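ASSEMBLY PREDICTION REQUEST
Request ID: AP-0331
Submitted by: J.K., bench scientist
Number of chains: two
Total residues: 678
Priority: normal
Notes: Please return the full assembly, not individual chains.
Input sequences:
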Amino acid sequence: MTRIEFNEMKATIRQAFLNAGMTEEKAEVCARIHTESSRDGVYSHGLNRVERFVDYIGKGWIDVHAEPTLGAKLGAMEIYNGNMGPGITNAIFAMNRATGIAGENGFGLVSLNNTTHWMRGGAYGWQAAEKGFIGICWTNTESCMPAWGAKSVGIGNNPFIMAVPRKEGHVVLDMAMSQYSYGKLQTTRLKGQKLPFAGGFDQEGNLTDNPGAIEETRRILPMGYWKGSGFAVMLDLISALLSGGLTTSGVDQAGLGSCGSCCQVFIAIDPLKLNSREFVEQAIAGTIQQIKSSQLAEGVDEIYYPGEQSLKTRTENMELGIPVDDGIWANVKKLAGLS
Amino acid sequence: MTRIEFNEMKATIRQAFLNAGMTEEKAEVCARIHTESSRDGVYSHGLNRVERFVDYIGKGWIDVHAEPTLGAKLGAMEIYNGNMGPGITNAIFAMNRATGIAGENGFGLVSLNNTTHWMRGGAYGWQAAEKGFIGICWTNTESCMPAWGAKSVGIGNNPFIMAVPRKEGHVVLDMAMSQYSYGKLQTTRLKGQKLPFAGGFDQEGNLTDNPGAIEETRRILPMGYWKGSGFAVMLDLISALLSGGLTTSGVDQAGLGSCGSCCQVFIAIDPLKLNSREFVEQAIAGTIQQIKSSQLAEGVDEIYYPGEQSLKTRTENMELGIPVDDGIWANVKKLAGLS
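STATUS: Completed
Returned structure:
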């Protein structure tokens, strides 16, 4: 397995983005987020997503020069039009505004309409937590999962993120609504393995842990069956109603690629405006201690709090380099003009 | 199966609550919510929960005369101490304040600490939607589920509710973090049936759809495995940090019964302060149409939007009467002094 050092990866992606027409400033930010995603183990939306992002720019599905513009302001809420700009810079802007508003009155909610794929949603949860804020955010997507009871895709896989700041490592949940991503199906299939648990339906309509069979039907399983399906619908509706943008069915009709003209919601809350630092630290420490001191299940060495495994991967990848697929790395280097 | 007419059930529960020392006003509200829960098919937290509620009053774990008191106010957020009052009246008060605040500036967030079991969480989502607001609410609970990787219970089953108002029937998601409730395990076992999907672990640590085996280990499965586990942790932490109250581990230590001195969060948003009525109606209608027009999976007659099946059950139970377990109904009548 080839491993690439963080700064080399970031510089290469940055150059690829500059070559695609981005400004220095935007290329720097987007390259950092893609590299950090790979660094934290979210390879599907890090280095591996660079080619598709550049392809979307070429197709005119992303306007690299667009900036979000304020559409409405009401109390602690602000709505922005993402103007089909890069999903990453739009999302960073939006969470930054949310923490800015929350810095005044404890709470801020910023929504984006008409934006594009934000890549790794967890990035914006970590962003809020780094500043000391509780962060909650989600996006809608195009249809890529069947609703519960359906055979054909009709709902989004709408990732949902919750982050709580903590000195020793933030507590961050970053979950999509499907049990497994298409990326996980692909990598599991390529390794010739089965999924840990059933992840979708085969041609006969039976639940299966065979990733290839699910890729064929595109009948990926919502997490918790009907629960993840219903949650996806609610996240979609509320993101559209909070931003005045397109629901999943509208994103489908727009036909501008994955998440083209989607909606996103960013919430920030300052826990120290409501509580003492001591209370906050003890609440989190007590919760983590309770989880970690549980009796371990069969074959389990340690119980992790949400986000802990990302931090472990981060430490490892910063030390050893970030693992890459050689073919993908060669292609990104080509986009950067380095081969 | 015995069916009891709505008004008879409500009057009986009301009398039981009056006999337990509640005021006319509180007994009326609590009896309505318990009866509506059974009416909508949530039997476990409707009639079936009356005896335990009365028992908790007797134990001093609920103060029937307590009212919430304002602890802090910051922008669009208010924090109340529930003073261990009835969970239902506290929660109705809190969602009512949230919609009141949202009526001014579009958004309101009210949290409760030191409150008690709110019974059916969906009630407060429906409450917000009835008034035309998007409602989001959740509660933490005592430990009743193992964290992912654990054998012993360490996290709450923290229900999470999202509601979107709609003229023809609100869209409401009301989900706990476990794949199945203990109530579902019990009723499935009593019918001699298997669960539709694996719902927990047996003594050997294997996933099983045998409800009795799960009741023995108390190793119920979080929905989506690690996802529901992580989501439960985040809901717990954020409810405590937003209200200054106890986390699940603190509720465990308090030892005041199920949800004794728990925390809850109530969010209300006015979608019509941000959008035209036409936009809101079209966004919801388009989404429901897309789901309903999906290709049906094997053996499925119709695809439901979140909340639709509750409405169907409501209509049926209002027409035919609300089904009851004869033993439970006799006990509640006894509490009401009617037998």
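REVIEWER COMMENTS: The longest strand of chain B covers residues 107-115.
SIGN-OFF: pending second reviewer
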